[in-house]
Amino acid sequence: MKKFTRQRFTSGAAALLAVAGAVAVGAQPAQAYTGTDPLASGCAGDAYTVAAWGMYNSKYGEYQGTAELRASPSCGTNWVRVTSNVAGNRVYAAIQSAPGTSGSDSAAAAAFDVSTTWTRMVYAPGHTCVNVYGRIIDNATNAVEGELPIQTVC
C-alpha cells in the first residue's frame, strides 16, 4: 500500500491551484462588461427577462413595441431589449444602474421601424436597482407619441 505523504498532497494542491488560477485570470471582472454588447460578450447566454413593458403610443391609442429588462447572472449585468412593431416610429429605451448614486452607469438604444435592438450593458449584480425609461418617437417629426415613465426595478 502506498503511503500518502505531505509532499504529494502539497504538490497536487499546488498543481490544482495553478490550474484554477489560470482559469480565474482569464475570467473578466463583471464591471468590465459595462458598456459592452450582451451578445458579443457572451453575457446573453444565461440571460433572462426580469420585467417587460408594452410601449403605448397615446397619439394612436395602440401598443407599438416592448421594452424588456434583461439580466445576466454570470456577468452581473442588465440591459434593455427594445422592439418596435410599427414602421414610421422608433421605440427608444434607456437603463441606468444604481440610480441616485455617483457610481451609476447608463445606456440607451432605439429600435427603428420594425426591428429589435438592445442597449449596452450596465453593471448591476444581484438585486442592484436599475431605472428603465422609454419613449415612442415619430421618425419624421421627432414628436414624442408615447412614454414609459421611469420604472425602478430592484
Question: What is the overall pLDDT average?
Answer: 83
Sheet-strand content, in percent, reads over 45%
The main sheet comes to: 7 strands, antiparallel
Rg over CA atoms, rounded to whole Å, is: 22 Å
Determine the N-to-C terminus distance.
58 Å
**What is the fold named in CATH at topology level?**
Immunoglobulin-like
Task: Please mark out the parts with pLDDT under 50 across 5 or more consecutive residues, or reply none.
Answer: 1-26
What is the tally of helical segments?
Answer: 2
3D structure, described in words:
The chain has 154 residues and is of the alpha+beta class. It has one domain (31-153): Immunoglobulin-like, CATH 2.60.40. 16% of the residues lie in helices and 49% in strands. It is built from two helices and seven strands. Strands 1, 2, 3, 4, 5, 6 and 7 form a seven-stranded antiparallel beta sheet that branches. It is globular, with a radius of gyration of 22 Å. The chain starts with 5 loop residues before the first helix and ends with a strand.
From the structure above, extract its key features.
7 strands; 2 helices; 7-stranded antiparallel sheet; Immunoglobulin-like; 154 residues; alpha+beta
Would you summarize the structure shown here?
The chain has 154 residues and is of the alpha+beta class. The protein has 2 helices and 7 strands, in the order ααβββββββ.
